Amino acid sequence: MSNDLPLSPEDVADIVSILDGSTYQTLDVKTARFRLRVARDGDGWTQEWDFSDDIPDVAEPAAVDATVEDDAGAIRAPLPGIFYRAPQPGAPPFVEVGSAVDANTVIGIIETMKLMNPVHAGASGTISVILAENGAVVGKHAALMRLA
Amino acid sequence: MIRRLFIANRGEIALRIIRTARRMGMVSILGASEADRDSVPAKMADEVAIIGPASSAQSYLSVEAVIAAAKAAKADAIHPGYGFLSENAAFAVATADAGIIFVGPDISSLHAMGDKLMARKVGIEAGLPVVPGGAAADKEAARARAEETGYPLLLKAVSGGGGRGMKRVDAQQELDSQIDLAMAEAQAAFGDSRVYVERFIACGRHVEVQVLGDGISAIHLGTRDCSIQRRFQKLVEEAPAPAMPDDKRAAIELAAVNLTRHLNYSGAGTVEFLVDAETFDFYFLEMNARIQVEHPVTEAITGVDLIEQQLLIAGGAALSLTQDMIQPLGHAIEVRINAENWQADFRPSPGTVTRAAWPAGPGIRIDTHMTSGGEVTPFYDSLIGKLIVSGATREEAVKRLGSALEQLSIEGVDTTRDLHRAIAVDERFIAGGVDTRFFEGLAA
Lengths: 148, 444
Prior knowledge:
Chain A is mainly beta. Chain A has 1 helix and 11 strands; from the N terminus they run αβββββββββββ.
């Protein structure tokens, strides 16, 4: 167990109290686990933490790709998240291939940061292809379905 | 006595728990999803156990995955934090069955407060006043309840908390569509689509009381006011509740302690009340049987480390604090910095934080897991940090809030900082004692 405790909020407040009475502009603290920079900013002070190390980043979960760049018929994700085709588990999907939709028809839900965001078709037409399955992780602007 | 503490949560609260656990000499084991493998709490924990993929349903909300990981890590206790499984009675049972201490109240208290309906019933038994309303299993039942309560009304997830699955309905024609949304959110967030219909008290304040109990004795740590909310999501919290007559404050605190005693409650809890902003009449809403997001404001004015109290009580110790030892001093305010574009209907703003400069100094506390280069994922909630300011008086705390927000700089994602700057200079906020309509009246 490493002993370089993360400094507590009280520690940071104490550091600033000391620095504030001095002419120092910044203080850098570096340990095996973290780096903290306390810096003067106008009338106050800021704290910036850095915990980066050599551990490689975990690969992003495979998100549904937004490859179809100029696909005018694509209904795209307004924001990233998890795509659901039905209002709740077990319920019938909002739309299927062949469903007629207009601009305001809800074709699915994207769960982003615990909020359910309805996805509207955005145009009139018929659903011709479903590109993103229920529960898929989708990136922003990912093509979810195609309209014909 | 807890030696190996498993933390079944993420983000700032996981880091907060690690800090106290380490100070108490415990080994901290973070149960993290794959998306949080490189998070700051994962770097600060003594050990990390991967509990599942990014989707919380398969990781932070999976009883089986969390218990299996805690057993494999030979943990002797699990701290659930807030949200996720923190108030899930089945999880508490599974934890006990695995021979592990659940850092939270007894299963009987979780059942009593686990859903809003049961909480009402128990509140009434303990002699607390409640708001008119009742359960609705489907649209038909909701329409019937709405006839009784009138409009505007509130739809709440029976198993809910934190404002998820909660909707305000102003007129009958909105009821059906709002019920669909409320039930879907309730299902997704809590695995239980049941909703509850309650009369909406327009001119109300949200006041809550922090309590601690050890199963025998119970004390309170004063009030918090969380009336500044948007769609039932708290934005600003302060302690103590400002602009409230002393006798009314004492009555609310006493009611909270009475409920805590009635339950033989063990651990930290929060008793929530709806308070009429004019008469100060109060109604019991629910008890949150867990640590709250806004716990730091209480810590700031009482000097009590609430996580430490939770861990001591869970470890079998009797409450070492007495009511006389709690002498709140000064005033504290917390603002939630969320990765949201508050000017575009609070649209979530996931992405990479290119720079995170948080304010620092006396009377300033930052609880955050977000550093420069950090990732705000779309999988979890939008809270990236909390700014807590305190001062000898409310006036001093408000002033400090304004200056601290000037120093706060988050780049790469949208945040609610500027919303809080607007709140900090709002005359109603400066005066103190606003009701839950505050946000609607906020000058854009």
